[in-house]
Amino acid sequence: MKRVLQLAVFPLLTCIAASCYYDNEEKLYPEIDGNNCDTLNITLSAGVQPVLASRCYSCHGNNTAASFGGGINLETYSGLKATADNGKLEGAIKHLSGYSPMPQGASKMDYCSINKIVAWINKGAPND
User: Fold this and answer.
1) N or C terminus: which one in the chain shows less Cβ crowding within 10 Å?
2) Where are the domains of the chain?
3) How far apart are CA 20 and CA 26, in angstroms?
4) Where does the chain have alpha helices with state H?
5) Is the per-residue pLDDT at 29 higher than 60?
6) Each residue's pLDDT tens digit, 53-76
7) CA max distance for the chain
8) DSSP summary character for residue 75
9) What percent of the residues of the chain are helix, what percent strand, and what percent coil, each to the nearest 5?
10) Cβ count within 10 A of residue 95
11) For residue 98, how many other CB atoms are within 10 A of its CB?
12) Once rounded to an integer, what is the mean pLDDT over residues 29-38?
């Protein structure tokens, strides 16, 4: 009788333990952004540069582009504009096939940050 009880309780405890799994919705569904993400009024100085400063300049900045960033300097407007115009910036941050996914060795940028950069590129990547 004791053995039967153990056999009945074990699957029950296994099911209960398996149901204690937690997922973060933002990580599971990064395309769904619950916050307001203003991409209509995006500017280089107010929307794009803060994202680049926090996620890109450590390798693609003035002092690091030559040694760590493959010569791609995103801290200067001319370097950023060229990379935006040739499609490499968008392809890299979206992790598209054929592009080196950036930031390298780190998690993909959040959906809002990517959308801000893409919106700025679609506006012609102005120096504003």
Assistant:
1) N
2) 38-123
3) 19
4) 2-18, 25-28, 49-55, 57-60, 77-85, 88-93, 111-122
5) no
6) 999 999 999 999 999 999 999 999
7) 79
8) S
9) 50, 0, 50
10) 13
11) 7
12) 63
